[in-house]
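**Sequence, structure tokens**
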Amino acid sequence: MKSHLFLKIFVLGIFAISMYSCSKDRLIPVEVEAVTEEVNPFKDKVFEDTRNLPLLAKLASKAEKIRVNNVNELPIITKKGTKIWLYEWNVRNQQNGAVTYPFDIEIIELYTLKDMLLHQKPTVSFNRMLVTGGAIYLNVSKNGVNLNISPLNPPNISVPAKDPDENMWLFYEAMNNQENFTWAEAPRDTIRNDTIKKVQPIFAGRGTYELFPQRFGWINCDKFYDYTGEKTNVSFVSPKLGLENMIIFMLFPNINSVIQVYQGKSLEVPVGEEVKIVALAQTKEGEIFAYFKDIKVEKQQTVEIDLKSYTEKDVLSALDKL
């Protein structure tokens, strides 16, 4: 019985081999197109913390440092035209005591949207767009110790303005330890001198904004952008790099406002407004990638960011054209 079984298996095997050989001769070769993967310049690259891109720190305007030795040197005039009247009675030490000359002033002036972008100081107050008249960072110290503004005698700071707007108000950097930078509106009334007279901390002058701040640090001349038309959120996608690894800005030249986009979606912006999109990323090795695009805001719009390799010079040139 076993011999008959082995014989059957042997015959079936020979038959299968012969059938395979015959069919193989009749096979028609088919050309298969090779699939090539798109070269991704961002693959296996680690990007810097977007809040501390070396590119921004290098291109951003640097602080100007000035020593005030006596009253005869007032007003102090900076390279960009800011005027500062800083008398001894305008400042107090950390113990609220009187201070005498000399003082050391440190100031950064942001008078263009490009400057605000590079310093990552968007003109936004708690998700509301602002129209800006310029921002400054001002710090005053003596012997390396920071001073405070006298609550009854704030200094006068004159900020240059081409067309001063009487509706502008003072905003400070919000001190709420939140992750994203935002501006906080100054109180609507301040007390100056012992007359208990309430005066505004800002007013429009002739080609200037006159500021009387209550604290040093980041200070902005702004007003809320009160737009009653249709608004929308603009979404962003990126096929090559995660949005968390880049910084995205939307610049509004007609409004004089700049916002930063977080988590791939903007705050509400006006439909139909012309916008300049800027996206930047950088590797730890120093490679720079950027995206520049002019768009008109549409309802429920999505913008695809296609980052390209840029040199530092090219980025600066593109930013100068904003």
Notes: The longest strand covers residues 128-142.
